[in-house]
Amino acid sequence: MKRNILMICAIMLLGSALFASGAKEAEESSVYPQAMDEWAKEAKLGIYEGEQDWDEITRLAKEEGEVIVYSASSRMSAVGEEFSKKYPEIKVTSYDLGSVKTFEKTISEQEANIFNADIITTGGSGNFIYDLVEKNRVVNFVPSMYKDMIPLEYQEPALVRILEAMVLMYNSEIHDEAPIKNIWELTEEKYRGKVVIKDPLASLSNLMGVVSIAGHADEMAAAYKRLYGEDITLSPGVKNAGFEWIYRLLHNDLIISDSGGTVTGASGKKGQQGLPPVSITTFTYLRYNRTKDYINELLFPLDPFDGIIFPTYTAIARQAPHPNAAKLFTAFLLGDPSITLDTEIPEPYTEGEALELLQGLAPYYETGSKSPRSNIATPNGGEAWDQMNMWLVNPEDDWYLGPEVQDFWMQESSK
Fold first, then answer.
1. For residue 147, what is the DSSP state?
2. How many CB atoms lie within 10 A of CB 74?
3. Which of 124, 188, 255, 352 has its CA 20 to 30 A from that of 37?
């Protein structure tokens, strides 16, 4: 009898060990951790997405009754208000955190096994792709009705909800045409102390722009040779032509500001004497020509680039408590699917008929920005976007090269 009991216990222990081993192997073989896998299957997200039934999604979203957004933008609260007007059954709670705190809050909560957010939306290409998407902290979701309207590069590996760009501007009162044709001219003595930028260490978008220049070393070297007719000679300790441009700009008494508005005013204010500065700034600040009576013009064509595009992403947070409301909110961010290039969108864009059409896109549809949808026209005043030679921020460069550029910038700007 005793022997039988011992045998039964042994069998039970062996079975438990096999079960635990099998469960561990099943979890390790899954694309997602176990709890996330169960959530994704129930929410029909990620590898379990399948066909999107929008009647069902809308019904479930209304039953969930809430959507919680972590955003880098203060305008997201206005989007939430409009969403709740269209879907009064759904409450929107928006945390307007800025880009750095959006990443910090998302990661710290999830590491503490807290899954509070439904939507994560911010810029910062490297961080978003490598720290959120690649580590299963968010799930990419593209509403099916927009898939034919958005280029694949803006759908994968994460959905882009709006595009902005770093550009250069000059004072049109002093100059009848663009004062330079090649980016290297800004490192010449003529422009000593005459170039202004918002500190890339305090601006994620400007940092991405500077990193892109460092990452396009071959193009920067070729532009140098086209201008001066000879190969570039790198300064001691400088690794390539992209870093060399940054080095020479910093050592040409670059003016570094903590305000994008101040940077744009440096080039755009009327009544300046002598040679006004060139500003390296965000395309959307061109609106100050209207709101502040500035006289900036975009500096293009410029060799080797006219601007650097930086995207703002949106994705559904891991184990979001309201996944269907998150899906519905994602669709709202992209505007009414019925909009085409022939659709007249009257100004102001945040009121009346325009707001009804643009929906969650409305607060971001402004001069110098662009929807990822190919069937939505560029906002008035920003038509040059479609003529400019733009580089798109590379998340890999942003993630791997970014820290090196930051260190280089700190080192050289302190000299």
1. T
2. 12
3. 124
Identify any residues that bridge with 121 across adjacent strands, giving them in sequence order.
71, 314
Given 3-state DSSP classes, what are the helix, strand and coil percentages for the chain, each rounded to the nearest 5? 50, 15, 35
Helices (H) and strands (E) in the chain, counts: 15, 11
Q: Quickly count: other Cβ atoms within 10 Å of residue 290's Cβ.
A: 11
Q: How far apart are the first and last CA of the chain?
A: 86
pLDDT at position 390 over 90: yes
381, 389 in Cβ contact below 8 A?
no
Strands 307-317 and 390-392: parallel
Which pLDDT value is given to residue 12? 38
Bridge partners (DSSP) listed for residue 370: 163
pLDDT for 204 equals 83
CA-to-CA distance for 375 and 341, rounded, in angstroms?
A: 5
Dihedral of the alpha carbons of 26, 32, 33, 37, in degrees to the nearest 10: -80
Q: Give long-range contacts, CB 8 A cutoff, 24+ apart: 126-131.
A: 126/208, 126/395, 126/396, 126/397, 126/398, 126/399, 126/400, 126/402, 127/99, 127/103, 127/398, 127/399, 128/158, 128/313, 128/315, 128/395, 129/157, 129/158, 129/395, 129/399, 130/395, 130/399, 131/103, 131/107
- Quote the pTM value: 0.90
Instruction: Answer whether 68's CB lies under 8 Å from 159's CB.
Output: no
pLDDT per residue as tens digits for the range 249-295: 999 999 999 999 999 999 999 999 999 999 999 999 999 999 999 99
In angstroms, rounded to a whole number, what is the distance separating the alpha carbons of residues 209 and 205? 6
Return d(Cα 340, Cα 377) in angstroms, integer: 8
